[in-house]
Specification:
heterodimer; A: 161 residues; alpha+beta; 60s Ribosomal Protein L30, Chain: A; five-stranded mixed β-sheet; 2 helices; 19% helix; 35% strand; B: 208 residues; Chemotaxis protein chec; eight-stranded antiparallel β-sheet
Amino acid sequence: MSEIIRVGMGDLNICKAPQGITTLGLGSCVGIAVRDPSTKIGGMLHAMLPDSTQIRNNSNIAKFVDTGMDELVKRMVAAGANKNRLEAKLAGGAQMFQFQKNNDLIGVGERNAEAAVKKLKAMGIRLLAQDTGLNYGRTVIFYPETGVYVIRAVGKPEKEI
Amino acid sequence: MGEDFTLDDMTTEYMDVLKELGNIGAGNATTALASMLQERIDMKVPQVQMLTFQEVGAAIGGEETVMAGVYLLVEGDIQGSMMFLSRKTTAKHLVNQMMMGMGHPELDEFDEMEMSALKELGNIMTGSYLNALSDLTHLKIYPSVPQVTIDMAGAILSVPAIEFGTIGDKILIIQTNFTDDLDIDGYFILVPDVDSYKKIMSSLGMPV
């Protein structure tokens, strides 16, 4: 088994095949996996909130989909990836608890996933597959060698997108 | 506390107050649990920790540890949310104690009755915690009906973590350990919004 790099909550990192990259127990956060299929450089962002411009304390850039994606791509390009070749896969954005009553943050999972789709489009990065929403947590592992994104959930069979 | 208040730059003095509130809340919850189960429960001094988002998963035994999470919204004089978390095995044990032999401790999963008892357990733990907070601060605190889930710790924690994420880069978590037949671990996470922090502090005579 080759090395698997871990990414924490509100964090990002890059890797190079044969390395993989993982984040454990995604809930309402989103795990955006990106790779350059030619240089096999990969990266992952575990973002908690959709939009840094909506939050006053926004210095932690990996916490947000928008600033986190900018930083991730910057680091991948610095490591030798070609921005024009990048492709992405997306997971997470669950709604862990259901409430009738409205609270801004209840629908944050869905908004995170929407923000990720929008940001990728704005950056010209192709979104190849996504497994988002519903009400359960996901552990994800991405392999830039093949582009396979493995998704594990409690009590469900493992799947690949 | 100015407009740009974040939990990250909270003074030691404020932290001590929050720790003390956590101690009292967790103590009250444990007492309520003991009286419901009609048994003696020994509680260790709760640990109040301020953790980064990267640290919090490991601190409760790993992001993939399967846990039972009870989550509810808080309204009244303060606004926010509250969560009680415990390992799935712990929750299963407590629920079966509550059901006086009518549960299925031998099965790994929770059936409908056990899920309902879990919700009640969460109600009692969070309700008695919030009661203690309300008594101390003389603030009105109304909890919503709790919602429960059983899933990976990281996924459950993402909910309060995101709420803390809107005001800072750390999460305040209260760990309580107690014993009846088993060693039991539970975690309380209270997430008041920024204005509610100010209300809690000023009601306790702290300058804000």
